[in-house]
Amino acid sequence: MRGAARAAGGRAGRRWPRSPAPGPGPPPPLLPLAVLLAVLLGGADAQYSSDLCSWKGSGLTHEAHRKEVEQVYLRCSAGSVEWMYPTGALIVNLRPNTFAPSRHLTLCIKPLPDSSGANIYLEKTGELQLLVRDGEPGPGRARCFGLERGGLFVEATPQQGIGRRSAGFQYELSGRRPGRDLHAPSAPCRPCSDTEVLLAVCTSDFVVRGAIQNVTHEPERQESAIHLRVSRVYRQKSRVFRAAPEGEGGGWRGRVRTLLECGVRPGPGDFLFTGHMHFGEARLGCAPRFEDFRRVYRDAEGRGLNPCEMGVE
């Protein structure tokens, strides 16, 4: 169900967060003391459109001499924020009603294409850590972190003139911890343990048996695209794997992504590929050789330790 999200109102006098902790590149300059002492929450007359999942607004409704902080409330597990002509700052409050309050949540954000005009920070108790720098070159890269580490603070950067600018990002919330299947910058490339493989079979968005047909590397994204020839699809939530064109030997074809640093290369043999959908793309999780998986599965089955069942013939 969709409905109107709450907008900021009143003049609560919230202070601007303190300067960010060290991050990639030099930290942005400290804000003037006058701004620190005079920040006001955005007025109720701000023009924007929102629902429970996404927010879209414009900084043109703010008076030029004011540094307003506008509150944005989102209650979905996925959506986007788009800020035209950014001025002042946004505080993005994520209060998802699709997860139990006590559950650990991981937030991932990915800048919109050509996003410019604002820096995006992780903010907790007034401390800022830079996540996305304004004008960062290349395709947007996802950043993932536990939601308990803080919220999102989006600050407009000084601009000359009134050229068209739009800053924003997509976001996804999940109950998985940051790691290989969330495309976190620190995602390990190590093989999965037996326990991780068995859990991946039960919890992944896709589980398929197949072989690596080709690998293309994309240095600008720091990623590799793995082109798969699939003989069996056990599960897929999205149509990542589609029937092969006639004359290509049957089965399915599809593509999954992983980090460039993992050094994936084409090679012989069948594998069990698992993973999750992330911002509309299939991200590789555990991928053991199929014979190794079958051995682990049958051993766990014999001891009654399989978390779920699947055919391994």
From TrEMBL:
The entry lists its GO molecular-function terms as: hormone activity
* This protein's UniProt keywords: Disulfide bond, Hormone, Secreted, Signal
Annotated spans, Disordered: 1-27
User: Is Signal a UniProt keyword of this protein?
Assistant: yes
TM spans (from-to): none
Range of residues in the leader sequence: 1-46
**Example GO BP:** positive regulation of brown fat cell differentiation
Compartments, record wording: Secreted
Cellular component (GO) terms are:
extracellular space
Primary residence: secreted
Please, which domain of life does this record's source organism belong to? Answer: Eukaryota
Instruction: Give the similarity note.
Output: Belongs to the meteorin family.
Q: Which PANTHER family match?
A: METEORIN-LIKE PROTEIN
Q: What is this protein called?
A: Meteorin-like protein
Q: Which organism is it from?
A: Rousettus aegyptiacus
